[in-house]
UniProtKB/TrEMBL annotation:
It is a multi-pass membrane protein. InterPro entries: Insect_Ionotropic_Sensory_Rcpt (IPR052192), Iontro_rcpt_C (IPR001320). Belongs to the glutamate-gated ion channel (TC 1.A.10.1) family. Residues 67-178 form the Ionotropic glutamate receptor C-terminal domain. It is found in: Cell membrane. The keyword Transmembrane helix applies. Pfam families: Lig_chan (PF00060). The lineage of its organism: Eukaryota, Metazoa, Ecdysozoa, Arthropoda, Hexapoda. Its main location: membrane. Gene3D superfamilies: 1.10.287.70. The keyword Membrane applies. It comes from Molorchus minor. Keywords: Cell membrane, Glycoprotein, Membrane, Receptor, Transmembrane, Transmembrane helix. The chain crosses the membrane at residues 67-90, 102-120, 132-156. This is Ionotropic glutamate receptor C-terminal domain-containing protein.
Length: 188
């Protein structure tokens, strides 16, 4: 296999020159062929590089809110669940009605409220309705803030970590090509 020969000066001048046509023949031939096609068909040849996205799908949905905000949402939901349990327990005791007050039932109700799906039952006492109102207001605010943050995050221009050829060389991108002799020349 014959290795490519280094050259001096500008690449365009070297590819257009007729001296030593037997050196780097394939590269020079294709450049001249593409030049003729460009003039004849009037097109613009270009190299387009798109920066790779480094985010996986889970990170995209968790990132709009910080870890502290997620922890505070969980703590607030637990506090609402406790007050919800307390108000349902008090309503069951004071009205002598058969009301479901198990933790699993209340977790399903809270999850339905946080996911904007509503609740199965409505409390009859004023205290339970206040807790329910706070739960729906809390879920509305979280939902609106999260949706707006997610949309703005998805619309943001991705960061361009790769700006030069050297950055491409130092990135963890993988390259593949057909194992042909002239491709080996290009990579050398």
């Amino acid at each position: 296999m014959k290795l490519p020969v280094p050259f001096e000066g500008e690449l365009i001048d070297y590819l257009n020159s007729e001296s030593h046509r037997e050196v780097n023949t394939f590269n020079r031939f294709h450049y001249n062929l593409m030049s003729y096609c460009q003039k004849y068909y009037n097109f613009r040849a270009a190299f387009i590089f798109r920066n790779p996205k480094s985010k996986n799908s889970m990170e995209t949905f968790i990132r709009p809110l910080s870890v502290t905000v997620w922890i505070l949402i969980i703590c607030s939901a637990a506090l609402l669940l406790f007050f919800f349990k307390l108000s349902y327990w008090y309503e069951r005791k004071s009205t002598k009605r058969r009301i479901e007050t198990s933790w699993s039932y209340l977790v399903v109700c809270l999850t339905g409220a946080l996911c904007q799906q509503g609740m199965i039952s409505t409390p009859h006492l004023f205290s339970g309705r206040i807790v329910m109102l706070f739960m729906f207001l809390f879920s509305l605010l979280i939902y609106q803030f999260y949706s707006a943050s997610l949309v703005s995050h998805l619309l943001m221009k991705p960061s361009t970590r790769i700006r030069t050829v050297k950055d491409i060389l130092h990135s963890n991108m993988k390259v593949g090509c057909e194992d042909i002799l002239y491709n080996r020349d290009y990579f050398l």
